DNA sequence: GTATCACGTAACATTACGCATTACAAGATA
DNA sequence: TATCTTGTAATGCGTAATGTTACGTGATAC
């Protein structure tokens, strides 16, 4: 298992570079194709909004991949930031009290 | 790849059954161990709240598994509901216009 | 050269949700 | 009976996603 030290790119950046720019699409064009507002898509690709579960489904439908793909990008992004935000120091380690029952 | 037809259990249910009940813990006890309010944990295990990224980190720290574990449970739960909520009928299939460039 | 249009982004309002605080009901215990 | 513990609901706050509206910029039409 490999620990990442570098912050994962915002899913919106991948959306912009690998799907919009790569295929010479515009934000307006894609927003219309997804049935959402331009402002909404603009916020996503600029990192000012995340990819909601509903948006993940729409993106998958439009770009021929899975909602899991977009959901994973978003989840990894959020978890990476949460891991360095949350103060773990005062959390009780229940699993150490179980001696031999720890899941992976 | 296997398509699930049955709704995934709410992550809070797994938390309650496999971690709290299984080890004879109480909501009060676990909430204190996590450093959160009882009401907060109660809402989660009763399906009235989801597991946030921050909560996933805390649960992993307390129970000896990974934030990814809890994050995946939550993501799968949300995506399953989003898939049957979102109206895909009017979404443009950009990938069909790319002919041979579809990602998996 | 000015007017119009398309495009991208910001501002605002609405809605939903995670979380803390508070209040309440039920059961156990002194 | 009174007090304490436990679980849950109600309330308020902050944050975030979304749609609508507005604004600035560049291209195109006249």
TrEMBL record, chains A, B:
What taxonomic classification does the UniProt entry list for its organism?
Bacteria, Pseudomonadati, Bacteroidota, Cytophagia, Cytophagales
Q: Which InterPro entries match?
A: Cro/C1-type_HTH, Lambda_DNA-bd_dom_sf, Toxin_antidote_HigA
Q: Which domain of life is it from?
A: Bacteria
All copies of the HTH cro/C1-type domain together span 21-70
Q: Does the keyword DNA-binding apply?
A: yes
NCBIfam families, A to Z: antidote_HigA (TIGR02607)
> Pfam families from the xrefs?
HTH_3
Q: Which organism is it from?
A: Runella aurantiaca
What's this protein's name?
A: Addiction module antidote protein, HigA family
Has UniProt tagged this entry with the keyword Iron-sulfur?
A: no
């Amino acid at each position: 298992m490999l620990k990442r030290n570098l912050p994962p790119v915002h899913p919106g950046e991948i959306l912009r570079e690998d799907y919009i720019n790569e295929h010479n699409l515009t934000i307006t064009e894609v927003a219309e194709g997804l049935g959402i507002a331009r402002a909404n898509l603009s916020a996503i690709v600029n990192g000012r909004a995340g990819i909601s579960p509903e948006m993940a489904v729409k993106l998958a439908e439009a770009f021929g991949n899975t909602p899991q793909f977009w959901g994973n990008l978003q989840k990894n992004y959020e978890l990476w930031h949460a891991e360095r935000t949350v103060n773990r120091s005062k959390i009780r380690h229940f699993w150490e009290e179980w001696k031999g029952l720890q899941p992976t």
